[in-house]
Amino acid sequence: MPGPRAAWTLALCSVLLLAQSFEVAGMRAAWARERPARIAPTIPAEQLPAQARQTLRLIRQGGPFPYAKDGIVFGNYEHILPQRRRGYYREYTVPTPGSRNRGAQRIVCGGPKRAPDLCYYTHDHYASFQSIAQ
């Protein structure tokens, strides 16, 4: 059984970790407020790359999708898209020709799976988005 010194050290460490987590959360909130919006003007679906248009078709059909992670919840941790409840956004891979992995292109849709309210395209792995006009 740990002595009083070990218990005191553990309590102090817990308080310090808690204080640090509040500080990090506050910094994230301030960063999100100060950062300019990174949603570019709307892009018509017809102007998307062919792979992105195919991904949109698959979304409307409900799949099947080529990647296991397609359709998972998109957390919007970058806080670029409008804030919605968790689970509202889902992400889908847009195959990138010549890429050995999933690449950087994604479509993120909000709302019902087969009939989303809106979709966004990102070519740079969530650094910026374009709203897709459908």
TrEMBL record:
Residues 1-19 form the signal peptide. GO terms for molecular function: hydrolase activity; RNA binding; RNA endonuclease activity. The lineage of its organism: Bacteria, Pseudomonadati, Pseudomonadota, Betaproteobacteria, Burkholderiales. The keyword Hydrolase applies. Keywords: Hydrolase, Nuclease, Signal. It comes from the Bacteria. It holds the Pfam family Ribonuclease. This is Putative Ribonuclease T(1). InterPro entries: N1-like, Ribonuclease/ribotoxin. Its EC number is 3.1.27.3.
